[in-house]
Amino acid sequence: MTQNAIEIEGLKKTYAASGKSAAKEALTGIDLTIPQGSVFGLLGPNGAGKSTLINIMAGLVRKSEGRVRIWGFDQDQNPRQSRAAIGVMPQELNVDPFFTPRESLETQAGLYGVPARERRTDEILSLIGLSDKADAYARTLSGGMRRRLLLGKALVHGPQVLVLDEPTAGVDIALRHMLWSNVRELNRQGMTIILTTHHLEEAQEMCDEIAIIDRGRLVVRDSTAAILARMDSKTLLVRAAGPIGAVDLPRGVTREDRADGWLALTYPQSTVKAGALLASLHGAGVEVIDLTTEQADLEDAFLELTGDKAAV
Ligand SMILES: Nc1ncnc2c1ncn2[C@@H]1O[C@H](COP(=O)(O)OP(=O)(O)OP(=O)(O)O)[C@@H](O)[C@H]1O
């Protein structure tokens, strides 16, 4: 058995032209593996191709080229098994208003051919915190409850891989916490989790590994820790009373004498503190008259990684 939950090779998708819109190459050749048991983040700006990618994984969109294996099952050779191995919590709140949560879960289980005795409806209702609403019509449920129901529907067939498409878009903090604790619990039980998000911060909180896609191509795939390390740098800007000569700076600090008169000292925050830089300047007899800092925020880091400011 493969150790990868997902294996994707040379995946391409071109949406055919229709009406006035030209054909659109949404994925230009993606190679990606996602290890079993991970919480994996798929990041990218609007239109990057995230939904296309997960919909292909889920068997909802037909790929143009390439190979996709879900839990070791090739989509072309074993379409049924590969589909059964994955569950998707979609973005849209498309629950049937006339079904109760229990009926929704039962119907979904029926669609996946789960025999009645193997259904885990009560267990799922409890996991998503809807046991007391099990028999209420969906139209009486709050937005948050509907979203939890969608999570439940993605779980009825006991998939090994759970995909959450922008799970916290428009969600309040309480629901976000609940979703994350559900996701952590499922992952603890062995489920592989893939989530798409626009927010690096969210991926940072939840994911072991991250892939960033941009305009249909994979830009970065690395551990969250490694991606965060790239964002470690901070810059101290100093203006001095007079010219600044040689300064003995801590290791890892780079100096730039800017044309506008500011001295820019860029340093890794994890190992160097701003105070140490000021002490160095003081030691070199520099009289600081003004100072400020610059820090790459998450958006900047994202832009740096995708290498194109026009992309967002
Ligand atoms: N059914 C479709 N027909 C034609 N083009 C499409 C279709 N679905 C998506 N696209 C186009 O393919 C590209 C990728 O879209 P996709 O929805 O996969 O991106 P995304 O990263 O999920 O974006 P978002 O975060 O906005 O959902 C976009 O340019 C989009 O307009």
TrEMBL record:
Keyword ATP-binding included in the entry's annotation: yes
A molecular-function term among this protein's GO annotations: ATP binding
The keyword Disulfide bond appears for this protein: no
Segments forming domain ABC transporter: 6-240
Key words of the record: ATP-binding, Nucleotide-binding, Transport
PANTHER family: ABC TRANSPORTER ATP-BINDING PROTEIN, ABC-TYPE MULTIDRUG TRANSPORT SYSTEM, ATPASE COMPONENT
Record protein name field: ABC transporter ATP-binding protein
Organism annotation: Pararhodobacter zhoushanensis
Lineage of origin: Bacteria, Pseudomonadati, Pseudomonadota, Alphaproteobacteria, Rhodobacterales
